[in-house]
Each structure stands twice: as structure tokens, then as C-alpha cells.
Amino acid sequence: MPASSIRTPYMNRPSTTGFRMSMATISEPVMRIILTLFFLSAAYAQQPQPQWFELPSKQLEINGLPWYAENQNEWYRLPAALKDRFPTAVWNLAKSPSGGRIRFRTDSQVVAVRVEYPSPPDMRNMHAFGQTGLDLYADGLYVGSAIADKEATPGKVYEHIYFQLRERPRAMRDIVLYLPLYKPAKVISVGVDKDAKIERAREFAASKPVVFYGTSITQGGCASRSGMSYQAILGRKLNLDFVNLGFSGNGKGEADVANAVAAIDASAFVLDFAQNNPTVESLRDVYAPFVDALRSKHPRTPIIAITPIYAASDDWSKEALAKKNGMRELIRKVVADRIAAGDGNLQLVEGTDLLGPAQGDGLVDGVHPNDLGFQWMADGLSARLRQVLGVK
Fold first, then answer.
1. What count of Cα atoms within 13 Å lies in the side-chain half-sphere of residue 284?
2. 29-74, pLDDT tens digit by residue?
3. Residue 254 per-residue DSSP state
4. Taking the domains of the chain in order of start, what are their residue ranges?
């Protein structure tokens, strides 16, 4: 249901003033409408109403955005103080808070959100839920999404109620709100009922986040909604925190971006940025230096290097396959050379083991995974992350 349709009762609750009109002056159809509005208003008045917590709030934990406080509570994925050092396209993509989450525990019978979008959804290969969806999960189960509509504009605030449970007894639930993948949304506040208990979210299985750097696939293209990126699936599966530094079309491994990634205190780094480089040679120029940038600050932190996953063009274009295979071989060599030199915390994962030639149904447009493809990727990576992090 569009957020705007849920917003209406809060803003325009029907009034009973003037209800006692002369019956002779009201036609039967109009009377039916008046009675319907009257009873809907009475029923709505009995529903628990939200109290609103403006963000940031000590009751609500923000995960996946390491520079959130430094960025004056803006939902950016890179430090604003360094924005002039990043390519313009990278910085603009960093304004979309993919991987950001709001977490808390509550027994509230209402959970709602107020969110602002700068513009309507406009992507060709992702619909409104995939591009702008603000997903809510309760106890690990998907509940619903707030989305932007075609009238989204700066200053227009959407108020979305995810659930109202007046008929159910109170129970503590783990709440996670996954921020949009491809739209610079601004979450203004989160609503719970006035009698609700709010507690800090439960601890993760690892004390530090897993940091993912890569392409549009890493950013979340083309999941049907934000809770279905492969990092989000992995996070629920293994109870892990994560940071998503995927930049659609622009995960090219630039030195300033590598230094920003290396600035994060991570439990592990996952690299998957080959495909955005135009040639094998351009990838060669940045891949080993990127690993070096991580190692200079994190000598023993696990690094997982992923070779490119399958794309439909692998079957139909000799040129595309040759380029992809050249990139795969380059990554293998970089990893093998460092392991041979004594790096025991660097590992290789073949992308085609995560999503391979027999799994074309996991692609949306021949390139980007759909939800099925992301599920396969998460399943393929989960055992490796369990191993390197030592989590159950």
C-alpha cells in the first residue's frame, strides 16, 4: 500500500461535527458515506497511535553507516569531509544509504516511519520497492515497505504505518529497518505507541561489521527491495553487521576510495569490484594497490576476493567472456601471490560458484541478480564468512 494512503488518517481524520443534520436534507447515498466515515473514525480512534522518535535517538541504533555522526546525521555512505576527493559519481551514489539500518527492540503495537525522498523512483531495471523501499523486518520476518511515489519531492514527508496490533498481546520484537538501495532518502523519525518499551538491539555475532566494496551488484541492483540484497540476507542469516560500499557503475578501486574503505574498523573485507573497470589493464592498475591499502591498516583482518559472477553475455559474446576471464585470472594471481608471500588471511571466492552459468534465472537483465540470485550468493558466501569470522 503506498505510504501516502496510510498517511491520510493521521492528517485528515473525519470529524463528527455537524453529524446531527436534518435527515430530510440528506440523500441516502450521502448518508451512507457519512455513516461510513463516522464509524471508520471511531474505529481508528481506538487504534494505538504512534509517539515519534526523531533521528538520531539514543533509543534507535544506526548500523551500516560508519560516518553517520561525522556527517552530521546525514545518511551518507562516505565521509562528507572528503567528498571532493572522490569521483563525483561515487559521491552522488554514496548519498543513497544502501546497507544502512535502524535497529531496536520493542513491544510496541504500532511501528511507523516518517521519510522524505528527493525525487520519484526512476530506474529502468528496478521498480519503486527496489529503488526506494524502506523495509521493515520484525524478528527476522519481512513485514512491509515504505516507498516513494511519482509525486516525491523535497519537503514532502511520507508517513507509513507498518503494523498496528491492537488485538494482540504485547511481545518484545527485534525490529530492523533497511534503508533504500538507490535513492537518497532521509528518515526523519520512527513511531511506536505511547506505552511501548524500547530497548537496544541485540548484539551481533561479530563485534565489527563486514565491509563490502564493489559494483552495482554490491550496492543491491537489482533486488526487489532493500532487505533482499545479498548482504542483508547474510546479515540475517549469520547475525552480522555490515557496511555496503557498492557504487553502481563506479566501483573502480580508486586510491581515495580504497583509503576510505580501509579507514573502517572491520571484522572482514569483501571485494567484488572487477566489472566496473573498462579493461583488464585498468583493473590491474588498481586491484593489488587496493589490497595493499587495506593491508597497510589491517594486517590480519580477513579479506575475501570475489571474481566476477556469471553474466548472460558470457555465453553470447566472445569479447565479453575474454574480458571477464582476464579479470578472473588477474584476481586469482593477486590473491595467490600474496598467499604465497605469507598472507594467511586472504581468500579467493569464485564468483561463478556463487552464481554460475546454470543459474541464469537468478539474473534480471543478464547482469544483475534478482532476489533468487542474491539468495544464491548469500548462501554461497555464508559458510566462508562463518569460517573466517569464527561465528556459529
1. 8
2. 666 665 555 544 444 445 557 899 999 999 999 999 999 999 999 9
3. -
4. 51-64+99-199, 210-389
The count of other CB atoms within 10 Å of the CB of residue 287 is 23
Distance separating alpha carbons of residues 177 and 137, to the nearest angstrom: 6
d(CA 117, CA 249): 22
Q: 3-class SS at 378?
A: helix
Grid coordinates in use for 39?
464509524
Q: Report the predicted TM-score, pTM, of the whole model to 2 decimal places.
A: 0.88
* Owner of C-alpha cell 523486518: 137
Q: What are φ and ψ of residue 158, in 5° steps?
A: -95, 135
* pLDDT given for residue 7 in this prediction: 42
Beta sheet of 186-193, edge-to-edge order: 50-54, 186-193, 110-116, 157-164
Reported as a single tens digit per residue, the pLDDT across 263-286 is: 999 999 999 999 999 999 999 999
Q: Is 144 exposed, middle or buried (0-12, 13-18, 19+ CB in 10 A)?
A: buried
Homologous superfamily (CATH) of 51-64+99-199 is Galactose-binding domain-like (2.60.120.260)
pLDDT value of position 230 = 98
Contacts of 171 (CB under 8 A, 6+ apart): 107
322: burial class by Cβ within 10 Å (0-12, 13-18, 19+)?
exposed
